[in-house]
Amino acid sequence: MLFAVLLCLLAALLTFIVSCRSSQSREKPLPPGPSKLPVIGNVHQVPRLQFWKTMADFVDRYGPIVSVKLGQQQLIVLGNQTIARSLLDRKNTKYNSRPHLRVAERAWLGPMVALMPYGPEWRTYHLMQTAVLSSRAVRLYDKIYSTETTQLLHDLLSTNDYPPRIYRYSSGLAYAVAYGMRMPRGDEFEISEINEIALKFFLAAQPGYWSVDDFPFLRYLPGFLTPWKSYAAHVNQIISDGFQRAYSNALQRDSWSWARVLAEQETLRALPKGSISFVVGELWAAAHFSSSNMLVALIRLILYHPEEVQRAQEELDSTVGVQRLPQLADLDNMPYVRAFIREALRWLPSSGTPHASTEDDEFMGYRIPRGSMVVPHYWFVDMDSDVYMNPLKFRPERFVNDPKLPLRTFGFGSRICTGQYFAQNSFSMVIMRLLWAYNIRFPDYVDTEAEPIGQLEARIFTMNEKPTEAVFTPRSGAHRELIEQAYASLDSVDDALKPLQSIKVNIPKSF
């Protein structure tokens, strides 16, 4: 009797094993990728500070959809626009969440729309940000764009050291709309503070950098074995103190600001204490960090494409002349300048934020497991030869010939960048006015042949190289005089922000 029972149990076990193996054999494979070691996967192949470069190498080697395993974390890297749109746009409901980045979560102990998993809480905070950054709302920001870009033009009359002037512009613009005060000098404490916040949090959120993101069980180790915990606590203290101080100060001012308009919303008063300061602070940090990096890289792009720059300047001259500074409304009459801006955005991708799959999926004969970190590699997305003819050529006319060409600089699906309209208008105003005002050239002592244009993509994408030296020369005495006149009559912050008072914010209670 006992023998019969054991025989039945053994038969059941063998049936289970065969069933599992049969199921596995029928299961679709993961996308191609580098060979993996047991337990650690591909961790040994991904240097901590070269995540994006390594992913680019993998796409070059294995194709437009790549499987990478970092410890326990499955990554799916998307290396062209067609695939990224198929998954992240058309299957948005399966890919609209975010992966757990555990150091970032500890470093930012407040709501963060960019990293928050999809759900009711995310929708509430996202609605708060879109209320002041919708396509309709940003039409009212023209005056503050004009004020800050006028100062940028004036600053460059006296120096060729452009990165600090660009940082002042981007952080000053962001601080003015977030908290209702201008940063005219560039050495204000708030500017150094937002630089520190952005850089330290960017490291905390860097994919592939922290072992605990790849091996979540490490979070249970004691403190002396987890230095990332003290780093996260340090960053959280800086962020919390900085955001709360800026938010409290904004509420003491009479100026319009994101902080003030959200604080006055009755429906938001039930939110956890400090939530609004984090929502506004996230916009402040994102507007500064992404804008400053893109604009510094823009100068390099301008230096390497003098013929396209000259054509844009000719259109600016015929449309605007030298009686006034360009305005955003002028873009309606300048198809080539519009195209130049879109081509520049195509060439200046940010690293973006990974998506997370919320359920198992199949695509192109491959399986994408639930919980995968899905990483669109924006350099390849915007250099897709199936979408753009000769993608490695800087050709603004491609957008003249086909104004409907897609541009995915700001992301995909419901997780597209909240500030895309604000950022695009800011970027457009800076490009227009820089090209109108200045001839931007390499210094005579720089060997432009030493760094061939073929290396440009990696330098722009990583955003961590030393900026290229440049000389800014006013295009004429009339241009210089007009810049000086415009600077002398700059609007006060109250006047520059006054049009924004007509923005209507109505957030229904949904929490």
Question: Structural class of the secondary elements?
Answer: alpha+beta
Poorly predicted tracts of residues: 1-25, 452-463
Q: What letter string, H or E per element, gives the SSE order? A: HHEEHHHHHHHHHHHHHEEEEHHHEHEHH
Quote the average pLDDT: 88
CATH class, named Mainly Alpha
Count of separate structural domains: 1
What is the topology, as strand order, of the major beta sheet? 1-2-6-3
What is the terminal-to-terminal distance? 62 Å
The appropriate CATH architecture is: Orthogonal Bundle
The helix fraction, in percent, is: 40-55%
Oligomer: single chain
How would a crystallographer describe the biggest sheet?
4 strands, mixed
Shape: globular
Radius of gyration: 25 Å
Q: What percent of residues are in strands?
A: 5-15%
GO biological process, one term: small molecule biosynthetic process
Signal peptide: 1-22
Keywords: Heme, Iron, Metal-binding, Monooxygenase, Oxidoreductase, Signal
GO molecular function: heme binding; iron ion binding; monooxygenase activity; oxidoreductase activity, acting on paired donors, with incorporation or reduction of molecular oxygen
